[in-house]
Specification:
This protein folds into 2 domains: 47 residues, no CATH class; 240 residues, 3-Layer(aba) Sandwich (Rossmann fold), CATH 3.40.50.1820. The chain is 38% helix and 22% strand. It is built from 10 helices and 8 strands. An 8-stranded mixed beta sheet has the order 1-2-4-3-5-6-7-8, sandwiched between helices. Strand 5, helix 7 and strand 6 form a beta-alpha-beta unit. The chain is globular and about 60 Å long. 48% of the residues are buried.
Length: 298
């Protein structure tokens, strides 16, 4: 008989904190599991908890590749000033002739993994032309596992990587199937990049919905014209401590924004491939994001 899956409520916060260190590249998988094992001396089955937090992407698919509501393909686009001459991404369109409002989907710090591809399909199923760029394209693309993907992304020139995402936004906005109205959402590193794009694109971006991402540079916030819907986990100190200064800058700039802190959640709560997933918060935040895009990209 298979053991019951570990749920979010069964995982010790100290293991979550270790996982956050691991996710953000401050420790590798071996060190992560080693430190988790050390907690066993305190009577915590931490190694099992730590192992359960590693992604299981078979769980992440909510929209099938063959869903009749969508058409998906891999595309390339030019990326001057980026890490390579061209970038590769996953383009998903609703069935029909369009044009459609467009949404850029930005991955975490490990490239275009199956979870992010599924998010792009979710956006397309809701009626949006969705592009999920793979920032690892100049190095050969997402390697099939998050450990190697994280290592690869850390090797890239980070400023140029953001340019690659900016070029993806521009390419998508000008796509023949796009109405020219553009939104962006992203997760973790992608959330910080969603804030960045709002600041650098000004009026060319209509809406941005970052998930638990680093705040935009304070000096650049004055350029934000997009409607902002900012999602935070309740337990996420590194990201949340940026909010007071970010909010003050948004207010000073007269920006349109909402921020939501989701009770009982950890960083990564939208990602349904690990026990950090919190279904109620993920659904509510995604419904709010879709409502934002429907309102401002119509």
């Amino acid at each position: 008989m298979n053991a019951a899956p570990v749920t979010q409520l069964q995982i010790d916060q100290r293991v979550y904190d270790l996982y956050d260190e691991y996710c953000h590249g401050r420790i590798d998988r071996r060190e992560y599991l080693k430190r988790a094992s050390a907690l066993a001396a305190l009577g915590i089955p931490a190694l099992a908890m730590a192992s359960s937090l590693l992604p299981q992407y078979a769980k992440a698919q909510t929209i099938s590749f063959t869903d009749p509501r969508i058409k998906a393909s891999y595309v390339s686009y030019p990326s001057p000033g980026g890490n390579g001459d061209t970038m590769r991404g996953y383009l998903v369109q609703p069935t029909g002739n369009g044009p459609f409002p467009a949404v850029l989907i930005i991955h975490e710090n490990r490239g275009l993994n199956p979870y992010i591809e599924d998010v792009a399909r979710r956006a397309a199923a809701a009626g949006f032309l969705a592009l999920a760029p793979d920032g690892l394209a100049p190095l050969g693309g997402y390697p099939g596992n998050d450990d190697d993907g994280r290592t690869m992304q850390a090797k890239l020139d980070q400023a140029k990587l953001r340019v690659d995402m900016l070029n993806g936004a521009k390419w998508l906005k000008a796509h023949k199937l796009s109405t020219g109205k553009l939104g962006v959402t992203g997760f973790c590193w992608g959330g910080g990049t969603s804030n960045y794009l709002a600041a650098v694109m000004g009026a060319d971006l209509q809406a941005s919905a970052p998930y638990y991402g680093a705040a935009a540079d304070t000096e650049s916030v004055k350029n934000i014209k997009a409607a902002m819907l900012i999602h935070y986990a309740e337990t996420d100190q590194r990201i949340n401590e940026m909010w007071p200064a970010y909010e003050a800058a948004l207010k000073a700039a007269g920006a349109k924004y909402e921020a939501h802190f989701y009770p009982g959640t950890q960083h990564g709560f939208h990602n349904n491939s690990t026990p950090r997933f919190q279904e109620a918060a993920a659904k509510l935040s995604w419904d709010r994001t879709m409502d934002l895009f429907k309102k401002h990209l119509a």
